[in-house]
Each structure stands twice: as C-alpha cells, then as structure tokens.
UniProtKB/TrEMBL annotation:
Quaternary data: Homotrimer.
Organism, as annotated: Paracoccus aestuariivivens
One Pfam family this sequence matches: Aldolase
Keywords: Carbohydrate metabolism, Lyase
PROSITE patterns noted in UniProt: ALDOLASE_KDPG_KHG_2
Protein name per the record: 2-dehydro-3-deoxy-6-phosphogalactonate aldolase
Length: 198
C-alpha cells in the first residue's frame, strides 16, 4: 500500500467511479472501498477493478453476507470490509483469495476475526472506542495483525492513533461525499496524505 489509508466511497455512482478512483490513485491512495449500500456498487467495483488493475486494490464495504462476498469477487473486487465480525464472511473471503477487514470493537471480536483468517482489523467506530481501547488491544493482539481506525479519525488526530498502535485508517466523508468532483476529492486526498506522520 502506498499510503496507510483505505478510501471509503459511500454513495459513489458508476458514472463517477473512474474519475474519483483516478484522483485517489494519483494522490497516493491505492486502496478503495465502495460500500454495498451505494448506488450500483458492483458496477463501480467492476469498472475500477478493470481500469486500475495493478494500480490499486478495489473492494467493497458494508459486506454482511457470504453471498455479498461472492458478488464482489465476481465483480473483480479484491478486498472485503465489514462493519462487524462474521466468521463465515471472513472465511469465505479468504477462501476466495480476497483481503478481509472485519469490523471489531472488543478483544473477543478481534480474536474471533483473527481465528477466522482476517487480513487486518477495522476498529469501528474508532472515535467511540477511543485511543485507550486501541492501546489495550494492541498489548494483546499479535504484532503482525494490522489495525485500521475507522470512524471519527482524520488529519488532526492521525499521529495520536499511530502512537496508540493503529497501522492505518479508513476515511469516508472527509474524503468523499456523493456528488463531489474528482478535483475536490484529489485536493482532500493530497491534504490527507500530507497530514500523515513522516
């Protein structure tokens, strides 16, 4: 990954997918998630997966079922992000050779996700969990498992989350809102990348 950011493009339409995706890639953000509650998300994933093959990892967010995993895989997606820990979804994701980032909030969920084969963990909502929760979790989690803070994180507190043990971030509305132009997204993405600690 060029930068430790997963862009969450909730509300993206297929018509905007390629321009917005290119703007992110040009800014150094090469992990892109289209939540499944967006308009025609599988078509956006298909378009970006085809056009940006070898340049970016495209996937889906808000993935709740094994059937969703299959549909995303068929569309060319390579990353599955969920708001929750569902071992069946994680196992199916890994069986298909895709990256799995389930949502976790407790130690029990973290270890259930790891046991099921998660690639990394999504601490969500991070602002509600807080830095203290992440520090406590990192003390017991395997060193080689990445934790992404998602929800209420941004340039003003990147350094604090890194210090607490985060390896990266999922960034949604502060990076992209439905209808935003590629130029607006590019500007925000550049600012976001510039704010990452060296």
């Amino acid at each position: 990954m060029t930068q430790p950011i997963i862009a969450i493009l909730r509300g993206l339409t297929p018509a905007d997918a390629l321009d917005v995706g290119q703007a992110l890639i040009d800014s150094g953000i090469d992990r892109i998630e289209v939540p499944l509650n967006s308009p025609d998300p599988l078509e956006s994933i298909r378009l970006m997966s085809t056009s940006f093959a070898g340049q970016a990892i495209i996937g889906a967010g808000t993935v709740l079922t094994v059937e969703d995993v299959a549909r995303v895989a068929d569309a060319g997606g390579r990353m599955i992000v969920s708001p929750n820990t569902n071992p069946e979804v994680i196992r199916e994701t890994r069986r298909r050779g895709l990256e799995s980032y389930p949502g976790v909030f407790t130690a029990t969920e973290c270890f259930a996700a790891i046991q099921a084969g998660a690639t990394g963990l999504k601490l969500f909502p991070a602002d509600q969990a807080g830095l203290g929760t992440l520090r406590a979790l990192r003390a017991v989690l395997p060193k080689d498992i990445s934790v992404y803070a998602v929800g209420g994180v941004g340039p003003s507190n990147f350094a604090d989350w890194f210090a607490a043990g985060a390896q990266g971030f999922g960034i949604g509305s502060s990076l992209y809102k439905p209808g935003d132009s590629a130029e607006v997204v590019a500007k925000r993405a550049r600012e976001m990348v510039a704010a990452l600690p060296a």
